[in-house]
Amino acid sequence: MVKAIYPGTFDPITNGHLDILSRAALLFEEVQVVVAVNVRKNTLFSLSERLELIRDCTLHLPNVHVSSFEGLTVDCLRRFGAEVVIRGLRAVSDFEYEFQMALMNKKLDPGCETVYLMPSEQYTYLNSSVIREIAALGGSVSEFVPHAVEAKLRKKLGAPHAPIQTVVPPKGRAKLPKKTKPRAKKS
After folding, report:
1. Which residue numbers are catalytic?
2. pLDDT in tens, 13-64
């Protein structure tokens, strides 16, 4: 039985995270979502709120479990008896950092393997920071996060749901002003 951990801050969990997690749940017998306790990060949601949101969003995945951990990823891996760290790669810009972390984890624990999963195309640009900012400014995040997460964001931020504005193009083709040729100067 191969077990994996999926570590992250998840502040908040997004549809991109859930996409990676759903596919990891098909690949591994058990996946432990590990919410990182990182005192250097100033999170919007408390640890208990993040754990609750993730549990609510993963009820349909029976082999997924949720917990928290503070410390090294390799220590977390050992604690849960896992062999694999799941990480998402959205863009080439993620690769350098993720590659460095995987190599360091391998150095600290030669039995640690890292498996990268790319999110589905519609989630490649998502990250929790952008979601928090959109919600804080009153924008709709309904297509980026589960409904429960959106509701908690609105409540936490006190941000109303932004009305949808429809831009209606004018009928017919817009006419551009005629270009005029510059007049030659008389000497």
Report:
1. 17, 41, 90, 128
2. 999 999 999 999 999 999 999 999 977 778 999 999 999 999 999 999 999 9
Q: Compute the distance between CA of residue 39 and CA of residue 31 in angstroms, rounded to an integer.
A: 24
For 59, residues 6+ apart whose C-beta sits below 8 A from its C-beta are: none
pTM: 0.81
Domains by residue range for the chain, with CATH: 3-124 (3.40.50.620)
71 φ, ψ (degrees, to nearest 5): 130, -160
**Cα distances (Å, whole numbers) of residue 171 to 122, 166, 168, 175:** 32, 15, 9, 11
Neighbour order of strands in the sheet with 64-69: 64-69, 30-36, 3-8, 84-88, 113-117
Q: State the DSSP code for 37.
A: -
Structure tokens at 110: 């030669």
Cβ-contact 98, 18 below 8 angstroms: no
Contact predicate 41/9, CB 8 Å = yes
CA atoms of 84 and 112, how far apart (whole Å):
6
In 3D space, the residue among 90, 83, 127 whose CA is nearest the CA of residue 105 turns out to be 83
